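Deliverable D5.2: sample structural annotation.
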Amino acid sequence: MTIAEAIYLLCAATSLLAAGMLLRHYTRRRTRLLLWSSLSFSGLALNNVLVYFDLVLFTGVDLSLIRSAAGALAMVALLYGLISESPA
């Protein structure tokens, strides 16, 4: 395993850990922004796993569109949460 491969997996683990901590805190506080943030970090974890699959495991298959869509949906979820929770 190269350093780049380890970093892909560490980024996925970090995003998943952040999503778990945000979701745990959401269950206590019930703040919708925490829910949207945890969904966003889950999407970012999926994006990082797809990067690993694309660049390491399935080198003959181009997964760039799928992983870009996962990252974009994660950012849209966070953006929606930020906009919907902003004071009017």
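Annotation notes: The chain has one domain: 3-84. The CA atoms of residues 12 and 45 lie 5 Å apart.
The annotation will be released with the project's public dataset once the embargo ends.
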